[in-house]
Amino acid sequence: MFDAYRSEGHPEISKETGITGVALILTLSTLRVPESFPLDAMHLFYQGVVSRVLVPLLSGTFWKDPPSNDDDGMKVPNPVWARMGRDLADGKKMTPSIYGRYPKNIDIHASKYKAEDWANFLHHYSLPLFKDNIQDDVFIMWNEFAMGTLLATQTEITPSDIDDAETAFATFLNCYYQKVYQRRRDRLAACTYTVHALSHVSQCMRWWGPLSITWQFASERFCGLVISRCKSRVYAAANIHELLKLRAALQAVSRTPNSGISLQNKSHLDDVHSGLLHTTKDLRFLPPKRLYDIQDDAEFDALRSTLAKQLQLRPEDVQIDDDMLSSMYRWDRMSLNGITIGSKSSRFSKRAISRENYFVRIRHQNQQRNTRYTYRDVYAEVFHYLEIKLFPGQPPLMLAYVQHYNVLLSSNLVEQRNPSGEAIYIDAATIRSLLARFRCHGRVRNRIVPRTWFIDRDRMYKTMKRVSGYHFGRVEVTDDSEDTGDEDALASDNDSNY
């Protein structure tokens, strides 16, 4: 910028700087620096701080000329880093496609990671992966950065979100400069411009709102599409022009009433028209469906128990005859808020989907006299879905046959343990979200053991906030409780079973 103003009207200086003058865009009266130039979250967070600073520091590849005293506690031992890479690669089949690109071996394929891969690694896999494999202060520092990033890239933010993001980034920078930079000249390379830019994120959020409205994911995807259609170097402009005309024409036709053309997937449209819709929620059972046949005695007892509650009878008084069985249909999939959730016994999933998509979080209502909570989270896998028409003229029951799992809260991360009791039928409307699972190794009591974690992308902010100690004492059990009376809470301690 200084050279541009120096070179304006001085050709002799232009020869030295290679700049002839001030860019015309800088002459706009509405342009303000830096207000008119929002930060790009994609390059700043994922392709900047994560991929070029933090991960190289952890893997030991950041320093070209290692400082004389390299004992800052950031580097992960090579065998541990290699094991974490293998754990990431093994998590492919346990991650639903809704969670984005499947994880890759970060030890071998870090150079092949794209911005979406870094984002998924930061928000989904890094916390359980790092929990028992890096130093505690480094884990807290990483969590502060991850929480600030998550807050800054939400689709909607509040003033309190901006304040929390500012606190998270300030805490991260304070820890980072003390631990990595250490105010030493031979460590000055750690003070990159991307790390410094984190101190300006909160102000940018006050000017522009969430950074997700200005990041470059969409524009780079579109540029990639345009480049892929350029078949000729000579006529590249004509190729791009034809592509833009075709897209505009398709969009115009799709908005024309009764055009007979839809840009949606045909199988998706078939599912929408042939599924079973819930009366009050954005929930729909999706085909295939077939007549229900009871598999074993345990399932028969679970069905009788559920029907007994609906009919207000004792389980032994419920008679399931052929007429009632003929009114029951078994479904393989359901759609919840636009997200497809499968089932473990689904033939459709086994044929067309290579990733698990049947572990869910359920909003469980307390039916006992325990006044510690009204609702709490329960984690389960879905075997199948069931439609039952009990009474003519009334909506059918929409149930899910699930197996609950015990979990262990460790630093507010949810670890999957053993199955809890027998499989039961629940109201499908109590299912809240589709979960991913991630299995990795960690040190527990001086032993390296495999641990399986539930990953809930709808709860990552709450998890990070709890890890950082932003809430103490009683905390909310569910974020979507409909109870507006007493606080729907449960005392939560680290390393506690429920």
How would you characterize this protein structure?
The protein is α+β, with helices and mostly antiparallel strands. It has 3 domains: 41-218, no CATH class; 229-263, no CATH class; 276-434 and 468-497, no CATH class. It contains 16 helices and 15 strands. The strands form 2 sheets. Strands 1, 2, 3, 4, 5, 6, 7, 8, 9, 10, 11, 12 and 15 form a 13-stranded antiparallel β-sheet that branches. A two-stranded antiparallel ribbon has the order 13-14. Strand 7 and strand 8 (413-419) form a beta hairpin. Helix 3 packs across helix 5, helix 5 packs antiparallel against helix 6 and helix 6 packs antiparallel against helix 16 (460-467). The longest helix has 23 residues, at 159-181. The chain is globular.
Give a brief outline of the structure.
This protein has 16 helices and 15 strands.
Question: Which secondary structure elements does this structure contain, and how are they paired or packed?
Answer:
Blueprint: H1 2-7, H2 11-17, H3 41-59, H4 78-90, H5 115-130, H6 136-152, H7 159-181, H8 193-197, H9 201-208, H10 217-228, H11 236-254, H12 266-274, E1 276-277, E2 283-291, H13 297-311, H14 322-326, E3 328-336, E4 339-341, H15 347-352, E5 359-365, E6 375-388, E7 397-410, E8 413-419, E9 424-427, E10 431-434, E11 436-444, E12 447-455, H16 460-467, E13 474-476, E14 489-491, E15 496-497
Antiparallel strand pairs: 1-2, 2-3, 3-4, 3-6, 5-6, 5-10, 6-7, 7-8, 7-9, 7-15, 8-12, 11-12, 13-14
